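User: Can you recover a sequence for this backbone? Please restate the input before giving your answer.

Assistant: Of course. Working from this structure:
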């Protein structure tokens, strides 16, 4: 199990996000952001909008970099 923060995953807070795999951590991060946005958190809404404004190529490049660095993240 690895851990990172919402901020480190292009989010808007210091909440810890965990996952056994990069895909699981990515899903947990998305769920966290969506919960915050649905609760009216403007900082998370802005972070989500900024990431969604990236080109598909930039989104894929960011995710590939995250996948490649997953094993170096701190253990949870």
């Amino acid at each position: 199990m690895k851990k990172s923060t919402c901020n480190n995953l292009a989010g808007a807070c210091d909440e810890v996000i965990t996952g056994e795999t990069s895909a699981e951590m990515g899903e947990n991060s998305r769920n966290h952001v969506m919960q915050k946005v649905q609760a009216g958190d403007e900082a998370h809404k802005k972070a989500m909008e900024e990431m969604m404004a990236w080109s598909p190529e930039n989104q894929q490049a960011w995710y590939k970099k995250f996948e490649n660095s997953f094993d170096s993240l701190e253990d949870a």
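That completes the design. The two ends are 5 Å apart (CA to CA).
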